[in-house]
TrEMBL record:
Superkingdom of origin organism: Bacteria
SMART domains from the UniProt entry: HTH_XRE
Matching PROSITE patterns: HTH_CROC1
CDD domains: HTH_XRE
Gene3D superfamilies named among the record's database cross-references: lambda repressor-like DNA-binding domains
One Pfam short name: HTH_26
Upper lineage: Bacteria, Pseudomonadati, Bacteroidota, Flavobacteriia, Flavobacteriales
HTH cro/C1-type domain sequence ranges: 7-62
GO molecular function (one): DNA binding
Record-given protein name: Transcriptional regulator
SUPFAM superfamilies: lambda repressor-like DNA-binding domains (SSF47413)
Length: 67
């Protein structure tokens, strides 16, 4: 079982760069990179909410479950 992170796709659709999102939500580009590559073991709901607000999307747009 695996959670797939679609952050790159959503960023491309919104024509936003990673560093712009990191600055907008107040995290480092290194931490955002860990999330984008799927290496993160967890994400705070507050961080997820900030990402969704900045990208005008829903959590389901970013996270997909695959068996």
């Amino acid at each position: 079982m695996c959670i797939i992170i679609n952050l790159d796709e959503v960023l491309k659709a919104r024509e936003m760069k990673s560093y712009e999102l990191a600055e907008a939500i107040g995290i480092t580009t290194a931490n955002l990179s860990i999330l984008k590559t799927g290496k993160a073991k967890a994400i705070r709901f507050s961080t997820l909410a900030k990402i969704c607000k900045a990208l005008n999307c829903q959590p389901g747009d970013l996270l997909v479950f695959e068996e």
